[in-house]
Amino acid sequence: MAVKNNPLSSIEVSGPIPAHLARSVIEESLRNAILDGRLPCGTAIRQQALASLFGVSRMPVREALRQLEAQGLLQVVQHKGAVVAPLIEDDALQTYELRLLLEAQALCLSLPLLTEADFETAAGYIEALEAETDLSRTGTLNRQFHQALYCKAPNKKLLALIDAGLIEEERFLRFNLEQMNLGKLCQDDHRALLRHARSRDIEACINELERHLQRGVKAITHYLDSQKPKQP
To answer: Residue limits of the HTH gntR-type domain (predicted)?
Structure first.
Protein backbone atom coordinates (compact mmCIF):
# COMPACT_ATOMS: atom_id res chain seq x y z
CA MET A 1 0.00 0.00 0.00
CA ALA A 2 1.47 3.36 -1.07
CA VAL A 3 2.26 5.87 1.68
CA LYS A 4 0.98 9.38 1.01
CA ASN A 5 3.66 12.03 0.92
CA ASN A 6 3.41 14.41 3.88
CA PRO A 7 3.69 17.98 2.53
CA LEU A 8 4.85 19.19 5.96
CA SER A 9 7.80 16.80 6.12
CA SER A 10 10.13 19.50 4.76
CA ILE A 11 9.52 21.71 7.81
CA GLU A 12 11.97 21.12 10.64
CA VAL A 13 11.00 21.88 14.23
CA SER A 14 13.77 22.34 16.79
CA GLY A 15 12.47 21.32 20.17
CA PRO A 16 9.46 22.57 22.15
CA ILE A 17 8.11 26.02 21.24
CA PRO A 18 7.23 28.50 24.03
CA ALA A 19 3.48 29.14 24.00
CA HIS A 20 3.89 32.91 23.50
CA LEU A 21 6.02 32.32 20.36
CA ALA A 22 3.95 29.52 18.82
CA ARG A 23 1.93 31.63 16.39
CA SER A 24 4.92 33.58 15.05
CA VAL A 25 7.13 30.47 14.73
CA ILE A 26 4.43 28.56 12.82
CA GLU A 27 3.71 31.56 10.60
CA GLU A 28 7.38 32.11 9.74
CA SER A 29 8.03 28.40 9.13
CA LEU A 30 5.07 28.09 6.77
CA ARG A 31 5.86 31.38 5.01
CA ASN A 32 9.43 30.28 4.30
CA ALA A 33 8.26 26.88 3.04
CA ILE A 34 5.74 28.52 0.71
CA LEU A 35 8.16 31.15 -0.58
CA ASP A 36 10.94 28.68 -1.36
CA GLY A 37 8.59 26.18 -3.00
CA ARG A 38 8.70 23.37 -0.45
CA LEU A 39 4.93 23.80 -0.15
CA PRO A 40 3.76 24.14 -3.79
CA CYS A 41 0.61 25.89 -5.01
CA GLY A 42 -2.54 23.96 -4.15
CA THR A 43 -1.02 22.11 -1.18
CA ALA A 44 -3.64 21.56 1.53
CA ILE A 45 -2.53 22.67 5.00
CA ARG A 46 -4.22 20.67 7.77
CA GLN A 47 -4.57 22.36 11.15
CA GLN A 48 -4.28 19.16 13.18
CA ALA A 49 -1.18 18.05 11.26
CA LEU A 50 0.46 21.40 11.98
CA ALA A 51 -0.53 21.29 15.64
CA SER A 52 1.02 17.83 15.96
CA LEU A 53 4.17 18.85 14.10
CA PHE A 54 4.81 21.86 16.33
CA GLY A 55 3.48 20.26 19.50
CA VAL A 56 0.90 22.99 20.15
CA SER A 57 -2.87 23.40 20.32
CA ARG A 58 -4.83 24.35 17.23
CA MET A 59 -5.36 27.94 18.42
CA PRO A 60 -1.91 29.32 17.42
CA VAL A 61 -2.14 27.28 14.22
CA ARG A 62 -5.44 28.98 13.29
CA GLU A 63 -3.95 32.39 14.08
CA ALA A 64 -0.88 31.70 11.92
CA LEU A 65 -3.04 30.51 9.02
CA ARG A 66 -5.18 33.65 9.25
CA GLN A 67 -2.05 35.81 9.02
CA LEU A 68 -0.80 33.92 5.97
CA GLU A 69 -4.23 34.18 4.34
CA ALA A 70 -4.16 37.96 4.91
CA GLN A 71 -0.74 38.04 3.20
CA GLY A 72 -2.15 36.23 0.16
CA LEU A 73 -0.06 33.10 0.67
CA LEU A 74 -2.99 30.86 1.64
CA GLN A 75 -6.57 30.59 0.45
CA VAL A 76 -9.52 28.93 2.15
CA VAL A 77 -11.17 26.52 -0.28
CA GLN A 78 -14.49 24.81 0.35
CA HIS A 79 -14.08 21.15 1.42
CA LYS A 80 -10.26 21.51 1.46
CA GLY A 81 -9.63 24.18 4.07
CA ALA A 82 -6.43 26.24 3.78
CA VAL A 83 -4.39 25.65 0.63
CA VAL A 84 -1.28 27.33 -0.73
CA ALA A 85 -2.37 30.15 -3.05
CA PRO A 86 -1.42 30.37 -6.73
CA LEU A 87 1.79 32.23 -7.57
CA ILE A 88 -0.21 35.04 -9.04
CA GLU A 89 -3.91 35.84 -9.20
CA ASP A 90 -5.94 37.06 -12.16
CA ASP A 91 -6.48 40.35 -10.29
CA ALA A 92 -2.72 40.93 -9.93
CA LEU A 93 -2.82 43.95 -12.22
CA GLN A 94 -5.34 45.60 -9.90
CA THR A 95 -3.01 44.77 -7.02
CA TYR A 96 -0.20 46.70 -8.73
CA GLU A 97 -2.49 49.71 -9.19
CA LEU A 98 -3.25 49.59 -5.47
CA ARG A 99 0.44 49.14 -4.64
CA LEU A 100 1.31 52.37 -6.42
CA LEU A 101 -1.22 54.30 -4.33
CA LEU A 102 -0.09 52.72 -1.06
CA GLU A 103 3.66 52.90 -1.71
CA ALA A 104 3.46 56.48 -3.00
CA GLN A 105 1.75 57.47 0.25
CA ALA A 106 4.38 55.60 2.27
CA LEU A 107 7.13 57.47 0.43
CA CYS A 108 5.46 60.81 1.19
CA LEU A 109 5.30 59.95 4.89
CA SER A 110 8.67 58.24 5.23
CA LEU A 111 11.00 60.25 3.01
CA PRO A 112 11.27 63.38 5.18
CA LEU A 113 12.20 61.18 8.16
CA LEU A 114 14.83 58.99 6.51
CA THR A 115 18.43 59.36 7.66
CA GLU A 116 21.71 58.78 5.86
CA ALA A 117 21.90 55.45 7.68
CA ASP A 118 18.57 54.45 6.10
CA PHE A 119 19.85 55.41 2.64
CA GLU A 120 23.03 53.38 3.23
CA THR A 121 20.89 50.40 4.22
CA ALA A 122 18.87 50.74 1.00
CA ALA A 123 22.08 51.08 -1.04
CA GLY A 124 23.39 47.92 0.60
CA TYR A 125 20.38 45.98 -0.63
CA ILE A 126 21.00 47.23 -4.18
CA GLU A 127 24.63 46.07 -3.99
CA ALA A 128 23.48 42.71 -2.65
CA LEU A 129 20.97 42.41 -5.50
CA GLU A 130 23.69 43.16 -8.06
CA ALA A 131 25.92 40.45 -6.60
CA GLU A 132 23.26 37.83 -5.81
CA THR A 133 23.35 34.72 -7.97
CA ASP A 134 20.76 32.76 -6.00
CA LEU A 135 17.45 33.82 -7.54
CA SER A 136 15.58 32.50 -4.50
CA ARG A 137 17.18 35.37 -2.53
CA THR A 138 16.47 38.09 -5.08
CA GLY A 139 12.81 38.51 -4.19
CA THR A 140 13.65 38.89 -0.51
CA LEU A 141 16.30 41.53 -1.18
CA ASN A 142 13.91 43.40 -3.48
CA ARG A 143 11.31 43.50 -0.69
CA GLN A 144 13.89 44.64 1.85
CA PHE A 145 15.05 47.48 -0.41
CA HIS A 146 11.54 48.89 -0.71
CA GLN A 147 10.87 48.44 2.99
CA ALA A 148 14.04 50.44 3.76
CA LEU A 149 12.53 53.46 1.98
CA TYR A 150 9.07 53.12 3.56
CA CYS A 151 10.16 52.16 7.08
CA LYS A 152 9.77 55.60 8.70
CA ALA A 153 6.12 56.01 7.68
CA PRO A 154 4.24 56.27 11.00
CA ASN A 155 1.09 54.56 9.65
CA LYS A 156 1.67 50.92 10.66
CA LYS A 157 -1.50 49.68 8.97
CA LEU A 158 -0.32 51.22 5.70
CA LEU A 159 3.03 49.44 6.07
CA ALA A 160 1.29 46.14 6.78
CA LEU A 161 -0.73 46.42 3.56
CA ILE A 162 2.42 47.26 1.60
CA ASP A 163 4.29 44.32 3.12
CA ALA A 164 1.52 41.97 1.98
CA GLY A 165 1.93 43.21 -1.61
CA LEU A 166 5.72 42.93 -1.44
CA ILE A 167 5.52 39.38 -0.07
CA GLU A 168 3.20 38.40 -2.94
CA GLU A 169 5.68 39.89 -5.42
CA GLU A 170 8.60 38.19 -3.65
CA ARG A 171 7.05 34.78 -4.16
CA PHE A 172 6.31 35.48 -7.83
CA LEU A 173 9.86 36.75 -8.45
CA ARG A 174 11.44 33.69 -6.83
CA PHE A 175 9.94 31.45 -9.47
CA ASN A 176 9.86 33.72 -12.52
CA LEU A 177 12.74 36.21 -12.38
CA GLU A 178 15.09 34.17 -14.56
CA GLN A 179 12.77 33.90 -17.54
CA MET A 180 11.66 37.53 -17.11
CA ASN A 181 15.30 38.69 -17.36
CA LEU A 182 14.56 41.74 -15.20
CA GLY A 183 17.58 41.68 -12.92
CA LYS A 184 19.66 44.54 -14.34
CA LEU A 185 16.64 46.65 -15.22
CA CYS A 186 15.34 46.39 -11.69
CA GLN A 187 18.61 47.64 -10.23
CA ASP A 188 18.66 50.63 -12.57
CA ASP A 189 15.19 51.46 -11.29
CA HIS A 190 16.26 50.98 -7.68
CA ARG A 191 19.32 53.20 -8.06
CA ALA A 192 17.20 55.99 -9.61
CA LEU A 193 14.63 55.64 -6.85
CA LEU A 194 17.32 55.87 -4.17
CA ARG A 195 18.96 58.87 -5.90
CA HIS A 196 15.68 60.81 -5.87
CA ALA A 197 15.04 59.76 -2.26
CA ARG A 198 18.43 61.09 -1.19
CA SER A 199 17.54 64.39 -2.90
CA ARG A 200 14.24 64.42 -0.95
CA ASP A 201 12.42 64.81 -4.27
CA ILE A 202 9.11 63.11 -3.49
CA GLU A 203 7.54 63.83 -6.90
CA ALA A 204 10.50 62.32 -8.76
CA CYS A 205 10.45 59.33 -6.37
CA ILE A 206 6.80 58.64 -7.09
CA ASN A 207 7.32 58.97 -10.86
CA GLU A 208 10.23 56.52 -10.68
CA LEU A 209 8.21 54.13 -8.52
CA GLU A 210 5.42 54.17 -11.11
CA ARG A 211 7.87 53.30 -13.89
CA HIS A 212 9.34 50.54 -11.72
CA LEU A 213 5.96 49.00 -10.95
CA GLN A 214 4.95 49.22 -14.62
CA ARG A 215 7.79 46.79 -15.39
CA GLY A 216 6.17 44.43 -12.91
CA VAL A 217 2.80 44.89 -14.62
CA LYS A 218 4.33 43.94 -17.98
CA ALA A 219 5.98 40.86 -16.47
CA ILE A 220 2.75 39.78 -14.77
CA THR A 221 0.76 40.33 -17.99
CA HIS A 222 3.23 38.18 -19.91
CA TYR A 223 3.05 35.46 -17.26
CA LEU A 224 -0.77 35.41 -17.19
CA ASP A 225 -0.89 35.28 -21.00
CA SER A 226 1.52 32.35 -20.98
CA GLN A 227 -0.76 30.44 -18.60
CA LYS A 228 -3.82 30.71 -20.84
CA PRO A 229 -4.81 27.52 -22.70
CA LYS A 230 -3.60 27.49 -26.29
CA GLN A 231 -6.36 27.90 -28.82
CA PRO A 232 -6.74 24.88 -31.15
So the answer is: 20-87
